[in-house]
Amino acid sequence: MATEVSTNVQHEHPPRPYFKILIILAVITAIEVTTSELGIPAYGAAIIAWLLIVMALIKAVTIIAFYMHIKYEKSPLKVFSITFVIPFLMSFLVAFFPLVG
Amino acid sequence: MNEDTQDHSNEGHHDHISMMSPFIGLSFGLVGFSLLSFAQNNLVMGLGMAALFIIVLAVFVVHEIRQRKAAWDERQIALKDQSHSATFMGKKMWMWIFLISEVVFFTILIGISFSLRLVNDPSLGFQDVARFCGIPTNTKLFNIGDFPKGWVDSEGKTPREILNIWVTTINTFILIVSSYTMVKAHEQAEHKNFLGQKDGKDLFFKLGAGKLLLVTAAIGAIFLGVQIYEYTLLITRDHFTLGSGLFGATFYLQTGFHGAHVLGGIILLLLMAYKTFSNGMEDASDIELAGLYWHFIDVVWVMLFTIVYLI
């Protein structure tokens, strides 16, 4: 029967660190909120804003890599660039068009 | 889920002209006009456009159901001839293409709101950001001009004075946990443990994929509940609405669209759970696709949380 044909999904793989990722995401979120609430002395609003955006990007990439299993795809970087990086960068340019008009 | 991948492989298959694109375009237009009308306190126009949207939606749904039902039987025949692997890879590719469109949608939505904010917020000027990046700011390219308003609502309050960060922080944790239960559901589905094992080695094995899907949907519903609570407080107590300046408009547009996606995700998860409990699951592929969508919602929220609430 058709369903018996082996699929490209890896059924047998070593346990993946899902719980660790959950903890990492929670910790980064806590750091983000603390940074945002207390601020960092000697750093201006713009630098803190950039720090927060970088932390958010790290969280986003972590979720994409581990929870969306891109890290375990055959060619992770290719899938990641085609589905996220390229569309993101192209739309980003459109979104920031008002700034450079 | 999407079965369109087998379209061209079957000679006997008739290509149906999909009305999806024009309907979606029209719907977005109507929703946009409706929101704009509400924002300008034009209730009649807003309600009219909303009603028109519902009619268009109904026509669309009936049309699609009819068309899909006709196509369904043909596809069932075609499906039997194909290996399951090819079907799944096709389905997954379509999910990725859908997610690409979602990346574009949310990047533009959040990006435009953010760029408007950079232009408008005196405390986080684009000049600062540009200087931080090493871009010379005295050129005409980055001369932003004199916008009349700062990044405040129509009563002159800043985001920090209006938004409750602590409620949203809890909501962020809630959504992250839902992503975890989702990925665990997928893991159990990979082990073919759909209905749970009483003597399972841990909680997740005891629950099984179906119940974990329900748990994920429930956590998603809690997230939505908290968001509705937040909206209610903002509207009734703080009188912060869609019409409260650029800030109000972009805030409700971003979080509202995200909330709508969460609602869609919950419905998808419930459908998957139903399919699991009615023994309709043969492998983990459908749950994996639902998971991709659910995690994507989480990714969007991670960015939204930082850009809307924290900065």
Task: Explain the overall architecture.
The complex is a heterodimer of chains A (101) and B (311). By secondary structure, chain A is mostly helical. Chain A has one domain (16-100). Chain A is built from 4 helices and no strands. Chain A has helices at 18-38, 45-67, 76-95, 97-100. The longest helix of chain A has 23 residues, at 45-67. With 311 residues, chain B is mostly helical. Chain B has 2 domains: 1-82; 84-310, Four Helix Bundle (Hemerythrin (Met), subunit A), CATH 1.20.120.80. Chain B has 9 helices and no strands. Chain B has helices spanning 20-39, 43-80, 84-120, 126-133, 159-162, 165-190, 203-237, 245-277, 285-310. In chain B, helix 6 (165-190) packs antiparallel against helix 7. The longest helix of chain B is centred in the N-terminal third of the chain and has 38 residues, at 43-80. Chain B starts with 19 loop residues before the first helix and ends with a helix. Classes of the chains: A mainly alpha (101), B mainly alpha (311).
How do the helices and strands line up, and which of them pair or pack?
The complex is a heterodimer of chains A (101) and B (311).
Chain A: H1 18-38, H2 45-67, H3 76-95, H4 97-100
Chain B: H1 20-39, H2 43-80, H3 84-120, H4 126-133, H5 159-162, H6 165-190, H7 203-237, H8 245-277, H9 285-310
Helix pairs in contact in B: 1-2, 3-8, 3-9, 6-7, 6-9, 7-8, 8-9
Task: Please outline the major beta sheet of chain B.
Answer: none
Number of helices of chain B: 9
In the CATH hierarchy, what is the class of the largest domain in chain B? Mainly Alpha
Strand content of chain B: under 5%
* Low-confidence residue ranges of chain A: 1-10
Mean pLDDT of chain B: 79
Proportion of strand residues of chain A: under 5%
Order of helices and strands of chain B: HHHHHHHHH
Number of domains of chain B: 2
What is the ordering of alpha helices and beta strands of chain A? HHHH
Number of strands of chain A: 0
Which consecutive residue ranges of chain B, at least 5 long each, have pLDDT under 50?
1-15, 139-150
Number of strands of chain B: 0
Summed up, the domain count of chain A is 1
Q: Largest interface, with Cβ-Cβ < 8 Å? A: A-B, 57 and 67 residues
Task: Label the structural class of chain B.
Answer: mainly alpha
Structural class determined from secondary elements of chain A:
mainly alpha
Which value, in Å, is the CA radius of gyration of chain A? Answer: 19 Å
CATH-derived topology of the largest domain in chain B: Four Helix Bundle (Hemerythrin (Met), subunit A)
Described by its quaternary structure, the protein is heterodimer
C-alpha-based Rg of chain B, rounded: 23 Å
